[in-house]
Amino acid sequence: VAEELEDAELRADLQKVRRAGLHLKGLVTTVLDLTQLESGKYVVQPKPIDVSALLREIVDGAKNEGDANQNTIEVHVEDGATSVADRRMLQSILFNLIHNAVKYTKGGTITVRVTAAEQLDIHIADTGIGMTPRQLQQAFEPFEQADASTTRKYDGAGLGLAICRGFA
User: Fold this and answer.
1) Is residue 50 a contact partner of residue 84, using CB atoms and an 8 Å limit?
2) Is 76 helix (H, G, I), strand (E, B) or coil?
3) Contacts of 162 (CB under 8 A, 6+ apart)
4) What's the average model confidence in pLDDT over 115-133?
5) Of 28-37, 71-80, 132-141, highest mean pLDDT
6) Sign for the pseudo-dihedral over CA of 157, 163, 166, 168
7) What is the distance between the terminal CA atoms of the chain, rounded to a whole angstrom?
8) Is 5 helix (H, G, I), strand (E, B) or coil?
9) Residue 71: predicted pLDDT
10) What's the burial of 132, exposed, middle or buried (CB within 10 Å: 0-12/13-18/19+)?
11) Residue 109 has what DSSP assignment?
12) Which band of pLDDT confidence, cut at 50, 70 and 90, is reported for residue 146?
């Protein structure tokens, strides 16, 4: 629908609203996933996944924040990169890793590289602020962030990496 609008400014605004909606959907899904994981009620449903299409959706949702932080998001997906996995689980892991990379990087690059040789390998790298060994130890605990100043500066509830660990 946005592509059909003649007014370029209105079209751009509508695309931003769409991206913000995708981001909000991802956050709500993260909270629901964590609740289901902790209760032991998450049911894994493996199905074939087009990884390239999934990444396009996630990166599109991260674009607003990436643009606001003056970041470049590079995605390199090898032809034939498919997987049999639980889509929601893989989507949640990729969503959280990519959004963290975008959030903690200012004026840098987030690179997502997917190869599909004997297995599917997904690498996400960024030029962001990094983490100390101490911060790495607590980063995967629910509601934990590097420290209070990080929470104030970057916002967030500290759930993303806990979800990634739980699903992994």
Assistant:
1) no
2) strand
3) 34, 140, 141, 142, 143, 144
4) 90
5) 71-80
6) negative
7) 37
8) coil
9) 95
10) exposed
11) E
12) low
Go through the chain and tell me how many residues it has. 168
Average pLDDT over residues 157-163: 77
**Which tokens sit at 121?**
């390998």
Quick one: tokens of 57?
Answer: 């959706």
Q: Could you give phi then psi for residue 124, rounded to 5 degrees?
A: -125, 120
Instruction: Give me the chain's average pLDDT, please.
Output: 84
Distance CA 11, CA 65 (A): 18
Helices marked H in the chain:
8-39, 51-68, 87-103, 133-139, 148-154, 160-167
Distance in angstroms (rounded) separating the CA atoms of residues 166 and 93:
9
Beta bridge partners of 85: 47
Q: Could you count the other beta carbons within 10 Å of the beta carbon of residue 70?
A: 10
Q: Which residue has the higher pLDDT, 87 or 5?
A: 87
Q: Dig out the tokens for 167 from the structure.
A: 């699903």
Answer yes or no: are the C-beta atoms of 121 and 99 closer than 8 Å. Answer: no
> pTM value?
0.76
Question: In whole angstroms, what is the distance from residue 119 CA to residue 112 CA?
Answer: 16
